[in-house]
Write a structure and sequence with these properties.
heterodimer; A: about 500 residues; globular; B: about 100 residues; mainly alpha; Histone, subunit A; flat
């Protein structure tokens, strides 16, 4: 078990002192994958040991030449909707089953420059549409804490891989909670950055005004480390925030931990509705301790009730136009075109290539945007989004962070949640808000209910990542729950 | 719901036309059950009334779409890699007919 559950920030120091230890570390992780992957099924595509080793040799050489590499030799699992040059990127969809991107996403480029090594591409809900990873066109992923349960989604493969010790760090993407939900269900840490902080160039789009790539790890320090590498302005993404300077979030976090400022924490009553009793108990227990040293206050924002339907309207509308690019002409699944018209070919490719949930969301999105319904649903949802933004901007003038559950429930059993769409969508009630208003949010383990992971979430104003990481670290101090190893 | 009503069939066919997607019979049965629930879920938004003086928020960032200078740059990706799934004929990408006849 040596190396496998070691935090990345410690390994990086070790590898700068003894670079050849990187090879032992890679051996250890690959052995771990060999022994647990058949149970967990985190990866859609795993890189070969030899190709990873070859890349490690280059990293070792760079260190020996005196380069300082902030991710020296660290293995990183990447959600399969982030483009990796020469490495199959499927989005867990038949339509991209054999798609090999000719370029790296900006985040992958940055990870490679920092000496990180991509170990494989992780399972997810098809096109990131789902909260359980059961919507993968290939197979479901299992929760390492209880193999009969889902790991959450849509970045379920990334979360399961970290939790099972099959990687040290991971990248996920979050449109309505897809990083935070699986982090919560696997007792790992996941952060959705401020909209525009991390480049989306090379991220296969679901709902562009909501999507963000973010870091996932087994502890808050490692999340800060990976965020430092990927967060910067990118001219290839027109929604990248201009003039964002590189920031060492890990250093900033350590500084803040030393100063220990007193936080003003809001608890929004409406965000605690529908929380399972034993989940609520764990959360209140942890937050009571946090609130004994920091200022906590309960507030009410009734419009929050409408965030979830408004989110799904916007997400489906954007999905229907984003996914129109899969036409079977330039890349991805195709079919015979000779003598057939465009509508026939287009419909056939999409019907064969997309799974039910994706087709449903595209169809509903097209409906929402169609004449006669656009005002009623789409425009109205965008107005709710405006009200939410104004209300929360106001709240953040008085408070540093909001504390809320990440998931109101414990991880469901496989097959349990997927049958009722509203039940499934309702799981996202506490996560969609951050995407709707562009705020950063982090999920951190709070404890266990009935031996299943429960997590607390912090949300802050745009670009308040350091404050969120600080709040999450305070929770780690209280619970001592970090770098957790499930009983696999 | 015992069987697929005509209205359900109409709605599903309308969606298929709008989205250029075909649902299998099994998918249609499932969709029929879910559609009503999802639309009801969306209809909660109507409880809010007209929301007359509120501007829709399309995007959370207050930035204008930045434009790069219009200068030619070399594409670093070879064309055959970029169009890995395409049929190429005389340097053009072959696509299905867009007009009938």
């Amino acid at each position: 078990m040596k190396y496998i559950y070691e935090p990345a920030y410690k390994l990086v120091d070790l590898f700068h002192q003894e670079p050849d230890k990187i090879f032992d570390y890679i051996d250890a992780v690959f052995n771990r994958i060999k022994s647990v992957e058949s149970k967990v099924k985190s990866y859609i595509t795993l890189r070969s040991y030899d190709s990873v080793l070859k890349e490690a040799e280059e990293v070792v050489l760079r260190i020996k030449k005196g380069e300082h590499l902030p991710l020296a030799g660290i293995l990183i699992a990447v959600k399969d909707n982030i483009s990796t040059r020469g490495l199959r990127t499927t989005c867990a969809s038949r339509i991209l089953e054999n798609y090999v991107p000719p370029y790296d996403a900006t985040v992958i480029k940055m990870i490679k420059e920092a000496g990180g090594i991509v170990v494989g591409k992780t399972n997810m809900d098809e096109f990131a549409m789902g909260s359980t990873t059961e919507n993968s066109a290939f197979f479901p992923t299992h929760n390492p804490w209880d193999l009969t349960r889902v790991p959450g989604g849509s970045s379920g493969g990334s979360a399961a891989a970290i939790s099972a010790g099959e990687t040290t760090l991971a990248l996920g993407s979050d449109t309505g909670g897809s990083i935070r939900c699986p982090a919560a269900f696997t007792a790992t840490v996941g952060l959705k950055p401020t909209y525009g902080l991390v480049s989306r160039y090379g991220l296969i789009a679901y709902a562009s005004s909501l999507d963000q790539i973010g870091p996932m790890a087994r502890n808050v320090h490692d999340v800060a480390l990976l965020l430092s590498i990927i967060a910067t302005h990118d001219s290839l993404d027109s929604t990248s925030i201009p003039r964002i300077q590189r920031c060492n979030f890990l250093m900033e976090l350590l500084d803040t931990m030393k100063k220990r400022p007193r936080l003003k924490i809001a608890l929004v009553r409406e965000l605690w509705k529908g929380v399972e009793e034993d989940v609520g108990k764990v959360l209140h227990n942890v937050l009571d301790k946090l609130c004994s040293e920091h200022m906590c206050e309960e507030v009410s924002i009734p419009i929050v009730h409408y965030a979830l339907p408004a989110y799904y309207v916007i997400a489906m509308a954007e999905a229907s136009s984003n996914l129109a690019r899969y036409d079977g002409v330039r890349y991805g699944l195709s079919t015979t075109k000779e003598g057939r018209n465009w509508i026939e070919v287009f419909s056939e490719v999409r019907s064969k290539g997309f799974g039910f949930e994706v087709k449903k969301r595209i169809a509903l999105g097209a409906f929402i945007l169609s004449a006669g319904y656009q005002e009623q649903y789409y425009i109205r949802a965008l107005k709710v989004r405006r009200i939410l933004k104004v209300e929360f901007d106001k709240l953040f003038t008085k408070f540093d962070v909001i504390a809320l559950p990440t998931m109101p429930i414990k991880p469901p059993r496989l097959g349990e949640a997927i049958t009722d769409p509203i039940k499934l969508y309702s799981m996202d009630i506490d996560t969609v808000l951050a995407n709707m208003i562009g705020s950063p949010a982090v999920s951190v383990p709070a404890g266990f209910a009935n031996a299943l992971p429960v997590a607390v979430q912090f949300m802050g104003k745009p670009l308040s990542e350091t404050t969120l990481l600080y709040a999450a670290s305070l929770i780690e101090e209280i619970t001592k729950l970090h770098d957790l190893k499930p009983p696999l | 719901m015992a069987s697929t009503t005509e209205a359900d069939v109409d709605v599903i066919e309308h969606l298929e036309r709008l989205a250029l997607i075909k649902f299998s019979q099994e998918e249609r049965d499932r969709l029929k059950k879910e559609l009503r629930k999802i639309i009801e879920f969306f209809d909660q938004l109507r409880e809010l009334g007209e929301l007359k003086n509120i501007e829709p928020l399309f995007h959370v960032l207050d930035i204008e779409s930045p434009l790069r200078d219009d200068e030619p740059r070399r594409c670093e990706i070879p064309q055959n890699e970029l169009l890995s799934g395409a049929e190429i004929e005389q340097g053009y990408v072959k696509a299905p007919r867009t007009i009938s006849g």
